[in-house]
């Protein structure tokens, strides 16, 4: 008979699984991964974002000691692409290719599944990277500001993206999609863990004087509005979401965070 204890994993193992799923960081998973495990690991996506933000902030801090701000920002962005394997950027490009090039839902899904990059996706990817670069370059006038923006951008954007799983239907023609296990549901425990991670980060930055309460209030309001827009957009286009939609949501949320910093600071 199967042993139920064999499928149980610790929270540390779930965190390692989340790191393995979202990044290219070398992680050893000493258990048989199931869809249920990946679904549970989604609660740590914000924590993985915090880890990525810390690594990017550290890389920028090193680069700016020797290089101009513009080059340091570019190199930091390159480090981010290497750390994640351009995981979310790929979803961003696929979404624009599918939504721009398809008329029916089936056509959009087929285009999004295609590994080739189309005109819509290429243009959207270029614009997105340029907006990120220009925003971070503007914020680099203050080292503390750009570092905090990067950390918040990486962490909180993944809260917004992952939260879309709750209350939306997963749609895909590919039954073997690697993101499908996440589509089962987002438990209340996972949602609370995501929110607590982001809230702890923001409150900590307020406590040390890096952020103002007013800035956090504006940032949260912007992201809540963006979340509503994303849900309506994905439902209008597909009737639900795909893994590419989550990637696009993360990228758009990250951009919104940087632009909010640019606007209020």
Number of domains: 1
**Fraction of residues in β-strands:** under 5%
How widely separated are the two ends? 61 Å
* Strand and helix order: HHHHHHHHHHH
Mean pLDDT: 90
What count of helical segments does DSSP give? 11
Shape: globular
InterPro entries: CobS
Family: Belongs to the CobS family.
Cofactor: Mg(2+)
Transmembrane segments: 44-63, 69-87, 117-137, 143-161, 182-205, 211-230
Give the SSE layout.
Layout (H helix, E strand, L loop, with lengths): L10 H12 L12 H7 L3 H22 L2 H16 L2 H15 L3 H9 L5 H21 L3 H21 L24 H20 L5 H26 L4 H22 L1
Organism: Pseudoalteromonas neustonica
EC number: 2.7.8.26
Subcellular location: Cell membrane
Task: Walk me through the structure.
The chain has 11 helices and no strands. The chain has helices at 11-22, 35-41, 45-66, 69-84, 87-101, 105-113, 119-139, 143-163, 188-207, 213-238, 243-264. By secondary structure, the chain is an all-alpha fold. 41% of the residues are buried. It has one domain.
Structural descriptors:
265 residues; globular; transferase
Summarize the structure.
The chain has one domain. 72% of the residues lie in helices and 0% in strands.
